[in-house]
């Protein structure tokens, strides 16, 4: 089924009475499948594990449409399911490996990049940015990944369980720290 408007942010209202679980899932993936793949990349660096995680998200999303009642937008529902699967993935990873996540204060104290690589304000080294995001504590990482998916503070709060004000504060602080790390020591106050 082709999309009617590829630039629209949300499909027409999805009512489970009109759509089967399979149809609801297919419509959600049609509208948000690329976003899910990008979102999952923020949870897992390893390509094979990332593909497995994406499959887990798709299974959970399909299963979730059995209980979807339209009390939130499909987009929020999709991200909420992806967030829950991603959080579970991180918890499992923590049990398997003894990784060291950094607090916001520790990220702030990391040395900046002063290699003199030519760049403009519009050109950001995404690999380095995601490397820094991957080092954030899980909740901070999730908030930032949802922000990068263009969700507002209220939407992120709905997904993570944080207040919109707390989300806005976290996003502001993380953006400031990431910008300082990306721009090097000369940009730090």
UniProtKB/TrEMBL annotation:
Limits of the RNA polymerase sigma factor 70 region 4 type domain: 132-178
Keyword Transcription regulation annotated: yes
InterPro entries in the record: RNA_pol_sigma-70-like, RNA_pol_sigma-70_dom, RNA_pol_sigma70_r2, RNA_pol_sigma70_r4_t2, RNA_pol_sigma_r2, RNA_pol_sigma_r3/r4-like, WH-like_DNA-bd_sf
Gene Ontology MF terms in the entry: DNA binding; sigma factor activity
Any Pfam family the entry gives: Sigma70_r2
Keywords for the protein's UniProt record, in alphabetical order: Sigma factor, Transcription, Transcription regulation
Regions that span the bilayer: none
GO biological process, alphabetically ordered: DNA-templated transcription initiation
Segments forming domain RNA polymerase sigma-70 region: 31-92
UniProt family annotation: Belongs to the sigma-70 factor family. ECF subfamily.
Annotated protein name in UniProt: RNA polymerase subunit sigma-24
Organism: Roseateles puraquae
